[in-house]
Amino acid sequence: MPTPPPSGPLVTRDSLAVQLRQLGVETGEILLVHSSLSALGWVNGGAVAVVQGLLDALGADGTLVVPAQSGDLSDPAVWGNPPVPEEWWDRIRATMPAYDTRITPTRGVGVIPETVRTWPGALRSAHPQTSFAALGPRAAEITEGHAPDCRLGERSPLARLEKLGARVLLLGAGYDACTSFHLAEYRIPSPRVRVGRPAPGGGWETVTEVSITSDRFDELGHDFERDRPVVRGKVGAADARLFPVADAVAYAERWLAVHRPREEEIPHPGA
């Protein structure tokens, strides 16, 4: 049976740039983008055209930032999708390649961030599991100094984006993908967890980190959008939302403390 033709809409680099500007993306701004290629429709040129359209909308003075996470660089004991046999764990820990900003692929964030990561001139932050990639004149300022024991907190690109007045673009992605909400988790009482991963110089290391979770971020996003000014529109077939990082963080700090308190959920290691 033949594959049915795509239902559209037909999306191009030029149409993306036009619709992004109509939505409110400004030339020269810093934009943190969470995205879904499939939500956009039939994109002529795929993820490459999307990145080109974003860069066109931002202009030469703008900076594009995406999550470039590599959560598979983690302890096999916590893997569940799929799990691996326990008898493999020690061997996996001993042989897992260490994080390399140049070659470690993204995982679970979609093809658009992976395209940005490999784009000529892209820079990437140093955290082995929750890095960000950036293109543009502020890329180095945003990605430098990402502390190895601070996934999405004060010493991560998120705090720099907040300080620099960056905005978030949800491009076919939901609020469950909004990393800015995680910065709020570092500013309220939160449990700590031990996080295992391959060490930069070889071997295995474990660091103590704030426990982060996107649980109930969809509810948080619903209330945020109800109470705060969020620009909404369409880009291609995708629902798009545009708002300041700082607004999202400040709202999440208050909301999470009331609606999702977690300070007693997991005891601090060694307590």
What does this molecule look like?
By secondary structure, this protein is of the alpha/beta class. It has nine helices and eleven strands. The strands form three sheets. The protein has a seven-stranded mixed sheet with strand order 5-6-4-2-7-11-10, sandwiched between helices. The radius of gyration is 19 Å and the shape is globular. It starts with 9 loop residues before the first strand and ends in a 12-residue tail after the last helix.
Strands of the biggest beta sheet: in what spatial order?
5-6-4-2-7-11-10
Q: What is the strand tally?
A: 11
Structural class of the secondary structure composition? Answer: alpha/beta
Question: Looking at the structure, what is the overall shape?
Answer: globular
Low-confidence stretches: 265-271
Largest sheet: 7 strands, mixed
Helix content: 25-40%
**What distance lies between the first and last C-alpha atoms, to the nearest angstrom?**
62 Å
Element order, helices and strands? EHEEHEHHEEHHEHEEHEEH
Radius of gyration: 19 Å
Beta-strand percent range? 15-25%
Mean pLDDT, as a whole number?
94
Count of individual helical segments: 9
Summarize the structure.
The chain has nine helices and eleven strands.
Question: Any key phrases for this structure?
Answer:
single chain; 271 residues; 30% helix; globular; disordered C terminus
